[in-house]
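Sample entry copied in:
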Amino acid sequence: MAAGRGRAVKEEDDMSGYVGYLFEVEKHSRYGDDGLRVEGRICYTLAPSPAKSPTDLQQEALARWDKASYRIGVLLERGQRLDHIAYAREGGGEIVLRPDAAVTEELIRLFRPRPDEEWVGLRPESDARRRYEFIAPNVVCFFLRLDIAPAKRDPQLLPVVARHQGNFVSSFMPGLWALPALK
């Protein structure tokens, strides 16, 4: 599912260089009685710059991401849980995203959930570089695994917001993660 920027941003804001977002499921499987494991990739389209070569644009983006931490919010149906969520780490292993109470509170204040929904705010456990792949000169993908339970018997759309430094009030990248049905 593609989505654009969530809010108007100032030129100096670190989210201003993004023009699109995509979550793509590459494979999925059942775990336990009612869990769904999804492996996929999150791809960002960067705004092209006529003043920069594709290589310069890529290296600048990677350097900016290495310098800035990131936060993610996932809107679950009440009673669901993320048993595991992690990015693949460059060089092997993974970077687990851990629940963060401050991020969750910020999301609740800004995006009031309905009574049947709940936000889970997440931060990475380390500042290691995520494994990435440029699939086009201005499109970069990161690899993610998530385990959600209880999973739905029908496909489910998970609203997601992400951002680097700062807070979600100043800007964010919205998205929808389309999860397949539990089989």
Q: What stands out?
A: The CA atoms of residues 135 and 141 lie 7 Å apart. Residues 18-179 form a domain with the Immunoglobulin-like fold (CATH 2.60.40). The chain has a mean pLDDT of 88.
